[in-house]
Design brief:
The chain has 160 residues and is mostly beta strands. Helix content is 13%, strand content 41%. The chain contains 2 helices and 13 strands; from the N terminus they run E-H-E-E-E-E-E-E-E-E-H-E-E-E-E.
Length: 160
């Protein structure tokens, strides 16, 4: 059976997500760091900056046997494991996240899933997404990444 590429979750050292992503891509390894634009307030000004959606976390697409190659660049820490095996993120979950992030987003929060939470897809446009979406309202979408055990709340910018 031929081995195929999977998306894996790679933790990085703090504030090294963009650097690790760039260095891996320079070596021909597909890497994705989901970014959101946020407004930061300093004492003298406000500024829009891009920050990682999930701090210290990027996604790597490779064969299982190629996973150790990421440690040839500075910055990676370790892979996320689920039930003793490297956690694999489905293509459609990553594509859904990328599509949402292409929109105008003003705020995003990542939180742990809690046992007993009920998740129902409420929008016909996303039927068949295997429970990825929990809630869609006028300005908010909730995205579930089951393999990671996280719920992401994305708020659309109302000024757009």
């Amino acid at each position: 059976m031929a081995e195929h590429d999977n998306w894996y979750v790679l933790y990085t050292k703090s504030r090294k997500e963009k650097q690790v992503t760039s260095r891996l891509e320079e070596r021909g390894i597909t890497a994705y760091c989901p970014m959101v634009k946020t407004v930061r307030q300093w004492s003298d000004r406000k500024k829009k900056i891009e920050t990682p959606l999930i701090p210290s976390c990027i996604f790597i697409k490779c064969k299982d046997t190629d996973r150790p190659q990421v440690f040839q660049v500075p910055g990676p820490s370790h892979y996320l494991f689920w039930l003793g095996k490297p956690a694999i993120v489905k293509n459609n979950e990553l594509e859904t996240m990328q599509n949402w992030l292409e929109g105008d987003i003003s705020e995003a929060h990542v939180q742990d899933l809690k046992a007993g939470d009920t998740y129902v897809i409420e929008n016909q446009d996303f039927n068949g997404q295997e429970g990825v979406i929990t809630e869609i309202s006028k300005n908010r979408i909730q995205l579930i990444l089951k393999e990671l055990g996280i719920k992401i709340t994305i708020t659309k910018n109302q000024n757009a």
